[in-house]
Recover the amino acids of this structure.
């Protein structure tokens, strides 16, 4: 029997891959698989729906501009989002535009607003199929490219969010989470200018560095210079 599996596609390419997997899955397989796609680009999600994808759609953006998002998320504005007047005028529902920070900014607001109910329901439906006492550990598969803005910007926060949901709601510590991530070279046939290719590679490099640091922190091998500095009490 196929283990209960949640397949999550991030960004345009990741979402299209998940939609294709759904098309190829048999009816029996689909009963044990939850299909979820997340994207900042509203147009990409609409195209998937028109092409027959019947899984869960989550738009991690609104018609707010980046500047309006920053007025809501003051921590991002004051501590980590890059200051750029041109970015501030960008409407986020048009997509992250290969800028990872925009995707993460939008995802923060999506989480705070409680707009991930569709993701919760997809997970809950898998538990309803098998009962709260799952005989097989839930499989979570996250699919994305590392080259763009949306997927590479939120794959770590989303993985941690799903993990936290499983632990807090189902006390599920035995879930198996895997990522399938595409490298920038797959786009080089259509994105041919060197400057644009460099942008893709920079996104991938930054994302891999974050993943590496996250894994090292988990096993205690993160170099001291990258660990949080604890403040001494007054």
């Amino acid at each position: 029997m196929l283990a209960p599996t949640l397949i999550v596609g991030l960004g345009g390419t990741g979402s299209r891959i998940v939609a294709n997997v759904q098309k190829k899955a048999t009816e029996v397989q689909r009963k044990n698989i939850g299909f979820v796609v997340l994207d900042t680009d509203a147009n990409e999600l609409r195209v998937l729906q028109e092409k027959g994808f019947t899984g869960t759609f989550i738009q991690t953006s609104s018609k707010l501009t980046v500047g309006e998002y920053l007025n809501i998320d003051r921590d991002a504005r004051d501590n980590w989002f890059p200051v750029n007047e041109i970015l501030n005028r960008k409407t986020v529902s048009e997509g992250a535009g290969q800028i990872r920070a925009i995707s993460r900014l939008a995802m923060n607001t999506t989480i705070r607003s409680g707009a991930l109910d569709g993701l919760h329901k997809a997970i809950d439906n898998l538990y309803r199929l098998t009962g709260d006492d799952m005989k097989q550990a839930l499989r979570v598969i996250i699919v994305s490219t590392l080259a763009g803005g949306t997927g590479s910007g939120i794959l770590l926060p989303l993985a941690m969010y799903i993990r936290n949901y499983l632990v807090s709601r189902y006390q599920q510590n035995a879930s198996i989470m895997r990522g399938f991530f595409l490298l920038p070279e797959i786009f080089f046939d259509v994105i041919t200018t060197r400057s644009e290719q460099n942008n893709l590679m920079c996104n991938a490099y930054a994302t891999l560095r974050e993943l590496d640091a996250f894994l090292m922190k988990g096993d205690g091998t993160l170099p001291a210079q990258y660990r949080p500095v604890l403040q001494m009490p007054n």
Notes: Strands lie at 5-10, 33-39, 56-59, 139-145, 176-182. The first strand starts at residue 5 and ends at 10. Residues 194-219 form the longest helix (26 residues).
